[in-house]
Amino acid sequence: MEDQITNRVTASNLITLDLEELYSPGERTLFDIKDLLFQGLILKEKDFRDFIKQHDWSAFRGKHVAITCSADAIVPTWAFMLLATVLQPFAQNVIFGSLEDLEKSLFLQKLNLVDWKKFVNEKVVIKGCSKVQVPVTAYVEAVNRLRPLASSIMFGEACSTVPLFKQKKI
Fold it and tell me: Is residue 94 classed as helix, strand or coil in its secondary structure?
């Protein structure tokens, strides 16, 4: 009788959710309007509108853009909205906030596209290692969406997981 090595990981009925697969390719860029402020403090509408008209927005083609103002200035909401209107035809995504906020937004958009029904009553491992930085927000949101569906949720790799949740047997 020969000893046969069995790969128990591949033979298990675990479903792996790899959040890295939800990464949106494309360049991320931050558009900071602080340099457009008069004396670093005030947004002058006429000057801002002139800049909007004269700037070549095609440089943002295909990029994911976060718009912000890092200066300690009061900037009217319409200024960010106006920026969005000129960026939107070129950029893949436009959000208000930091580059970190942008990454969170991109992952949440992709999480909204996941067919969560496939995880009903399943044992799910949320993959831990990835080649791209997955925001903690994405992991927490994945758990929020899996919790009502999955029979169990684990984190890590199929060969070494951290248990997070297990449905109680009735």
Answer: strand
